[in-house]
Prior knowledge:
Radius of gyration: 25 Å
Number of helices: 13
Largest sheet: 4 strands, antiparallel
Oligomer: single chain
Shape: elongated
Number of strands: 7
Order of helices and strands: HHHHEEHHHHEEEEHHHHEH
CATH topology of the largest domain: Tetrahydropterin Synthase, Chain A
Strand order of the largest sheet: 3-2-1-5
Distance between the termini: 39 Å
Strand content: 15-25%
Structural class: alpha+beta
Amino acid sequence: MAEITAALVKELREKTGAGMMDCKKALVENGGDMEASLDWLRTKGLAAAQKKSGRTAADGLVAVATSGTSGAVVEVNAETDFVARNPDFQGFVKTIAELALANDGNQDTVLTTGYPGESRNVSEQLTHLIATIGENMSLRRMTALSVNSGLVSSYVHNAVTTGLGKIGVLVALESEAGEDVLAPVAKQLAMHIAAAAPQSLDVDDLDQDIVARERAVQIEQAKESGKPMEIIEKMIEGRMRKFFKDVVLLEQTSVIDGETQIRKWLEQEGKSAGSEIKLAGFVRYALGEGIEKEESDFAAEVAAAVGS
Length: 308
């Protein structure tokens, strides 16, 4: 029996795209024979995972996990909504959220962390899942939030099960108030964020490129009015204030009551609680945002499948 070296395992992995532990097992099972190991992996379906890696994965699930003053949100993509209903996929995404929480949202660390109950790490478990379920998948992103005192809370919109859905929100509140006070405040904020999709916490945090583009558009539109420049400048400032009210969280009007500015509402809640409530941060993940989906010809796909 040939010695199963790291180089041999690496070579098999590069040829198949299967996980490190799966490659090692294949070589052990086949006495170190490379061709026999390739066939073994093909039989198990693991080598097929690499072939799927080029396909667009824009569906899937967003998951959240929280524990007191910490929270994490993750997005794991698959090709179709069908997979999002698969219990194995759901279990994987939920586990990733918990690992993200335990590792401060460090994606590189999570990918190399051992997957609970398996001999594989997370990256290898993902490859295994691709081969098992038959669709391309990817761990797209993750973010963690924490506060020294207060609460990190979460909300999932269009939930398919607890903590899993299409939109995931984290809200971090810094305060000396108790959880019984902060929890309903955080929930209302998170629901607002899910609906209103703010781009930043406050005006200073807003991407300056976005601000510059909006201002340039407003200047061009205002010039068409033919009014004097001093009037145009006032018009632009007014329009920019309206823009900030649309995209900046603390400037937005609550979607819950339709009239109170979020900044003022938080101040009121703090006064009622007898302790200042500061919004330390938020994260909003919407499934597939920013991913360009491929247009497919369903009839052609069916024809190709029948002919294969």
